[in-house]
Amino acid sequence: MKFKDGIKEKNIIIKCGSDVFLPFSLIFALYVILTAPVGGGFQGGVLGAAAVLLIYLGYGYDVTRNSINPEILRINEACATTIYALLGFAGLVFGANFCRNVFYANGWLTGFVHDGTIGLMDYAVGYNVMTGVGFLLILMLGFLAPVEEAKKAKKKEDEK
Amino acid sequence: MIQHFPVMAVMLLFLGAFLVAIFGRISPVIRDGIAILIATISLVLIYALIKPVMIDGQIISYWMGNWEPVEGYAIGIGYEVDALGLFFALLVVTTFWLSGIYSLGYLKKDANKMHYYTLYLMLSASVLGLVLTGDLFNMFIMIEIMTFASVALTAFRNKQAIALEAAFKYLVLGSIGSSMTLAGVALMYRVCHTLNMAQISSIIGGEFNLTTIMAFGLIVAGLGVKSYIVPFHTPAADAYTAAPTSISMIFSGMVNKAGVYGIIRMVYVVFRAMDRSSIQILLVVFGAVTMFIGVTMALAQHDFKRLLAFHSISQIGYVITAIGLGTALGLNAGLFHAMNHTLFKGLLFLTAGAVLTATGTTNLDKLGGLSKRMPVTTVCFLVGAFSISGLPPFNGFASKWMVYQAIYTKAVESGNILFAIATITALIVSVMTLASFIKVTQAVFFGQENPENANAKEVPVIMQIPMVIMAVLCVLTGLFYNVVEKFLLAPAAGAALGVSNYIDKMMGAGYAKAAGITDIEAAPAAFSFWNPLVWLLLFVVVFLGVYIVMATSKSTRGRMLEGGEGYDPKYATFFSGEQEEFSQVGGSDLFWGFKTDWKGYYKVLQGLHSGIVTDYASYIVMGAAIIILVMFICLR
């Protein structure tokens, strides 16, 4: 079976596997990131980025490239880093050193940021790694993809 | 309040990089505005530290997240700003601020400027962080960011093949350097169980065992790759040529200064090895070889920027030689020359960029007669050329004089022939520098005008401002060298030698004394411009050296070059008459006699600079092996 612009469809079992595991992997990634105060940001972020690989395995490079916009990933990564840096500066605002954990169990907003800014900073790390590694994976898969497929995706993007 | 300034300066630059990445697409004004605003804030924050650190003699220590040492062990990341770090930080902020202003005008025709400004701010932040940090691993991270930002910026004009080639070479060779540093840092952590430089210094206490010698060698070699001393210089020439000129200025002004700073910090403060004559000789030999090979390579170039790149290597040789002496005067001289190199080489790169903007080429054989069309650029170039050649009253004269004096004093004191040879090398290299800048002046700004460049115009004002600022700084630091010496060099040299203050401020008062650390004994810098008898002796030695070189070289005097291989009527003006078309004495022609005399030497160099990355990688490994071997032999 072929799509109209000539993309070969993959085996139905692989596609179904990809469909089934994608939500689980994303939820697991989110779970690991949300255990952030003990340092799950980086690991969770990498797990989340692996979703790109699942889509690639199930549907091939073209669909991956169409379903995820690298430009948005790039801007999100920059946002994540900005959030991290601003949270680091929060320490300065509250009269301590850079990166100091503030808002720590001081009653204000307790329950949401009960771990203080260090937890939020770890969420930011997760966000950053997820977007950054996802971006990298898309770039690297571009090298793996057959030349015609990559060219087609590039052409389609240029037309946009 | 003041203790927050260093970390704010570094982190604002990183923040600015990502703000540019988010908002840069909206409009060019916002993009340029963010970059310049952040760079200016950073400049002001660092300049505000001059009074407390340089004049009042404070040392700023700063623990990230207030993670102070627990039971005498430094577990957090610490920033420590002493006069030495601040001295280099001042060079860094000045360079990237001027480069930022210049790139506003310089990058008019380039696409993807958002990427440029993001990487520019990342590079600035990483180098600033490197010179301000007090943590060995943090230093390595900053080196990594610096290397990759540099690689990406080298490839910025990726429509040119040379940009991609240079970036690839830089990537491979720079990564080898980073890996060596990382291996050294890992070994240090194994031995000391801490990464804080102050604490490592007090734990090692100037004594070496097998592991620390290995680590020392690896770290110094890794930092040597970053400062492009021979034989690690090979990626520099391509990278400086291919990068946009504002970035070439950053490379020569701060990136290789970061390597020099790292070496000074390691040999003087962390490992405290400079009281050993073996390490002194090692650094002086590497420095002398670097300056000689750099300048002879520069004489053979015909690309403006490539020539400047090799001069950059050569001038770093002066700095390494001077700091390798282990005396207060040598340290003063090395720091002064590092500062002056930042100023005049930055200026020269900016003029090269102006020529590139006006004419579209930096090939010396295709330029000529630009002085009428570009008067401001010409004057600025002449100031830079006079400075780098060491003509009074420009700054290069003062610092080179200090370097000569330092090496010569050391040679007289220690009676070691190697230091005497290094003195003569330094003098000869200075003459050759002057010669090669005569060539550039003749080939670019004076001489016959190339009709192709008939509509070259002076560059816009926004590009002239940084050039004029740098030229003025070159003159001022040359005229008021004693002010510079008093307020910048003496505190910085004192900080490098006064290790116990550095340790005490970071780890708590009395820590250094408890560990038995004493400052390096060094006579105070006695810097004077004139001591007739000693200098008479020196000139006699130099004369003998030059005479021997001339007597042994194959003379071409009295022989006519005619017929056969290598004969070109272009050089025989009286034989063939002047040609009508543009035939100016180009970059490759002016010193052809010298190059003919030194044919054998140049043949060897030509074979070595093959352009093959694996060759260059093997030089780096060999250089590192030599450093480690010498250290194992001498420090055991």
| Content of β-strand of chain A | under 5%
**Secondary structural class of chain B:** mainly alpha
Q: Please estimate the helix content of chain A.
A: over 70%
Low-confidence stretches of chain A: none
**What is the percentage of strand-forming residues of chain B?**
under 5%
Secondary-structure element order of chain B, N to C: HHHEEHHHHHHHHHHHHHHHHHHHHHHH
Number of strands of chain A: 0
Oligomeric state of this protein: heterodimer
Q: What letter string, H or E per element, gives the SSE order of chain A?
A: HHHHH
Query: Count the helices of chain B. How many?
Result: 26
Note the main sheet of chain A: none
Number of helices of chain A: 5
Q: Class by helix and strand content of chain A?
A: mainly alpha
Describe the protein in words.
The complex is a heterodimer of chains A (160) and B (636). By secondary structure, chain A is mostly helical. Chain A has helices at residues 12-34, 41-67, 70-93, 117-144, 147-159. The relative contact order of chain A is 0.16. The model of chain A has no long low-confidence stretch (mean pLDDT 81). With 636 residues, chain B is mostly helical. Chain B has 26 helices and 2 strands. Chain B has a two-stranded antiparallel ribbon. In chain B, helix 6 (136-154) packs antiparallel against helix 7, helix 13 runs antiparallel to helix 17 and helix 14 packs antiparallel against helix 15 (375-389). The longest helix of chain B has 32 residues, at 161-192. At the A-B interface, helix 3 of A face helix 1 of B.
